Records
---
Amino acid sequence: MSFGLRELANFLVPTSCAVCSRADFRLCPECRTEIQHQLFLPPLPDGHHHYVELPLIAQQLPVSSCGIYGRELARAMLAFKNKQRYFLAAVFAPYLAAAINSSCIPQPGTVATYIVAVPSSLKAVGKRGYSPVASMLEHGMARGLYPSELVIRPLLHYRARSVLAGAQKLKSGSARRGGQEHFIAERADAPGRPVILVDDVLTTGATLRHAAMACHKAGYSVTLGIVLALTKPPNHEPEQ
């Protein structure tokens, strides 16, 4: 945006940087640069790959992350999720799309792979007015960042009892890992339909585990998970 247009927009609707609160910018150049340094395009570096155990089916779900949760990236993600900074979906979307496209396993014939967002709770969607993960995927699809063999499909839903039990983020790590099933998936339209699960942050892996098991029970083959950022274990040395 040109200086004149930005000044006019700020006069009409005053704004500040979503990360550092600097006036007159939705995302100031310095914070945008830092976020770009903290998000990676494929090939993703070491330390950005993880495995979530699926003990009930004796398998592991490979998960790749565009970045490590912390500093400007963490503040931007919190602003996106909790402070109505919806425009950040467009900032994050290309990184998520690149990670998904590079990790997608080619399928025979015309079998499409479904990209499935881990859903937000009804309470969170009601508060924000949007689902952060679904918004990032929709931005990517609208900009033509996904090939035709990848189809975004909202087939995963919260179980009613999970809605009443409260948000996952408010629970302890042990409660998350030991919790009951949170999601239910629509029945697969073709046996073994490949699915890529997408979430914003990987912490304990419990959310992706619940989502993967729900898809597995519905007849899908979950090939991998992609997240925008993963958290380091508590004993990991802090980043400089």
Note: The longest helix spans residues 88-103.
---
Amino acid sequence: MTSVVVSSPPAKLVVTPASTKPAMQKTIMGYVPSESPMYRLHPATRLVIYLVSSLVPLFIERPEFNLVVIGLTLAMFSVANVKMGRLKMFLPMLVTVFVILNLTYIFFPREDVSGSSWQFGPVTVWAQSLLWAFCTYCRIAALVLASIFYFSTNRESDILVGMRTLRVPFVVSYFVGLALRSVGIFMEDYQVIKEAEIARGLDTRDLSFTGKIKHFAMNLIPLFSLSIRRSEDISMGLFAKGVRISNKVNGRSRPDWLRTQFRMKPFDWTLAIGLVALLLGAAVIAFATPLLSLGDSVFALLIPGGLS
């Protein structure tokens, strides 16, 4: 009797199409493509960009110059492939700051204001006060956007490498690292609470502005409870690992593996030195000349009689 062997057909190799989605890098405030041009720079260079872009507006009173700084920061968002739509979540905060600043300058004007004014009942609104409020708001907006950009394109490890490369004391970088870790955990807990509310059918989109504020205040209670629990977990973890707040181990400097993964290139040195020179130049011009003062602003020409 002959046996018949039935062979199974050869297995076909199924080729899974390669994903066309770019690899994403998780940062402190979101996700950025791993091939973002920002990652071609050393973390220390990115930190210098952040410090300069946030400190330069402090030396500038003229709003038109600070608007240019804001425009450059928004351009960096586009170059770094950061989604501009994420800025919508910060729009209520920017509007709130604008309103509070104007109310502050209206009800508590500077002592040296003069010129045009409008009377609304017992309240006198000075044109110069509104201009100073706009000047201060442009400074704050430039600082806020620079901070959003930096924390949207950098991880905690990038920030620590940048600080240690700039020779920031170990204790400072250590506590900054813990603070950033706490912020990240805080935001993740807040997202978990929001998703839990959505899963239970709670829709906050139809709430009034006052209702949203009350709802946010209700979220603060579980958030603070979770934060206290997290801080205790972190402190116990550090104690269990025998972590010491010192850069010395047995009298020798602690090895820093993270820093060995990055190397400053000539372009990084050139860019960092150029930005520091720009910051120093802005400081010298601000203290030695009136070129950056509000009196020479084009917005001051809109006030009848100019700025005193």
Note: The two ends are 116 Å apart (CA to CA).
